[in-house]
Amino acid sequence: MHSDLRHRRKVARTALPAAVLLLMGSAVVVQSSAPAAAAETTLRAAAAKAGLFFGVAASPNRLYPIVGQEFSQLTPENDMKPDRIATSSGGLQNTSGADTLVNHAQSNNMLVRGHTLVWHSQAGALQGASQATLNTFIGNAINRWGSRIAYWDVVNEALEDNNTGRRRNQWPHTMNRDANGDGDFFDAGDTDVMRDSFIRAKQVVQAGGLTTKLCINDYDVDGLTVQGGTPNRKANALYDIVRNYRQYIDCVGFQAHFNDNPNSIITDDLQANIQRFADLGVEVHITELDIDDDLSNNDIGAGQAENYRKVVRACLNVAQCTGITVWGISDSESWRSSERGLLFTGGNGSYQKKAAYHAVLDELNKGRNPTTPPTTPPVTPSVPPTTPPVDPTTPPPPTTPPPPTTPPATGCSATVSLNSWTGGFVATVRVTAGTAPISGWSVQLTLPSGATVTNAWNANRSGSSGTVQFSNVSYNGSVNAGQSTEFGFQGVGTATGLTPVCSAG
Ligand code: 9MR
């Protein structure tokens, strides 16, 4: 983009919401018969109240106080990439930067997103490695930090640019083979580096009893369409991958670098696209958000602050959109500083909030909006549904979950895994049928006092605090003997020591 063509929009500072102004006055006492919801004054607190994390990409030399104050999740911007930490044989090296970031996150009660294991770029010594070496690296990296990493980007940016909907054609995707020539890599005889990497990652997570969730991450996959209403083929391709490999993939990252590229704009169907992934049962995250401040060709065209509001709202409106991460703190320190795409100006630990910051905070403070559920989008995958892959070249991961709390005979058992941050949590519950198939299930859990469920997916729910009951929905009640299904819920407060009790029928 030519800087002389850029028309720098003068962004009027948005008025602070009345509730925020009230809170800023130290002597204000709110007396009202109808208790007003107090607005939170940091991004992390407002997000926690709404039931999601709000994170930032970070580097060890920029761990200023603002990181722990405003954000509840941290993604190493560069320190966990293969070019930093991988040896050519899949071992680890130079992990001190990553260690610093993980420790910082832990001492500030922040979740960590590991970024990233399998990527064509910044591959360093792994460039050209075999699947076996990639698998070694995957095992070493996941095991080094274990459950201290809540989410790992296992596969990053696997799809081509320019909305072709195809896989990339450079390493590691050069290992892919379409054995039967049907145009996809989903068949049992095909080779797919994505599938095999996820299988390996899942094996490592299960063998270690880790709570780490495994994600696929990409850019230009945000809307159902791109500029001009053209179908977003890249998003459709990602959707097909997640649907086919759902058994190994727990979460999807929309990078959300919004700029003037016609495939990188904010479209009005962003929420619908988030929703269709959520409907597959995965968590969705906005993982690398920045928005060019003179985004001129988007479908919204309302200025950076309003564009931020739109993206945050799209996530809030989908229960399984459980986190938003901005790709840096301030414009001047951003990898795309010329776009001024972040929430703060300033630098070196001294930051000023932009209008976009106030818009995001305000939107988060409004919370999720259950009274206007998102419309279910038309699902138009680019290939017809296929059965999940069987007999992949790498043996499938063990399907045995951690020891059930109630030993299954017939009936069912349930286990729970938690991702928690200060003020909130996401729980994933795995329901496993015993020695006979079941045609329906219910799971009862008792939450500690102070914990409240805000939303749930893949289950009906009754109750939100104390003893809460979940039961199957239409599509996941039938579970074959020894097989499992998962549902999830999200809440505020702290949920520890959950003991799920499963009943079949
Ligand atoms: O922000 C990162 C920048 O410091 C690096 O120089 C760059 C090198 O590729 O990677 C940037 O982060 C990328 C992220 O890892 C994946 N999505 C796109 C980000 C911007 O390229």
From TrEMBL:
Record: active site: 288 (nucleophile)
Signal peptide (UniProt feature, chain positions): 1-38
Swiss-Prot/TrEMBL keywords: Carbohydrate metabolism, Glycosidase, Hydrolase, Polysaccharide degradation, Signal, Xylan degradation
All residue ranges annotated as the CBM2 domain in the record: 405-505
Domain GH10: 37-363
Coiled-coil regions listed in the entry: none
GO MF terms held by the record: endo-1,4-beta-xylanase activity; polysaccharide binding
EC number(s) from the headed UniProt entry: 3.2.1.8
One GO BP annotation of this record: xylan catabolic process
Compositional bias (Pro residues): 371-407
Catalyzed reaction equations: Endohydrolysis of (1->4)-beta-D-xylosidic linkages in xylans
Gene3D superfamilies: 2.60.40.290, Glycosidases (3.20.20.80)
Enzyme class: hydrolase
Region annotation (Disordered) ranges: 365-411
Family statement drawn from the similarity comment of this UniProt entry: Belongs to the glycosyl hydrolase 10 (cellulase F) family.
Name of the featured protein: Beta-xylanase
Taxonomic path: Bacteria, Bacillati, Actinomycetota, Actinomycetes, Micromonosporales
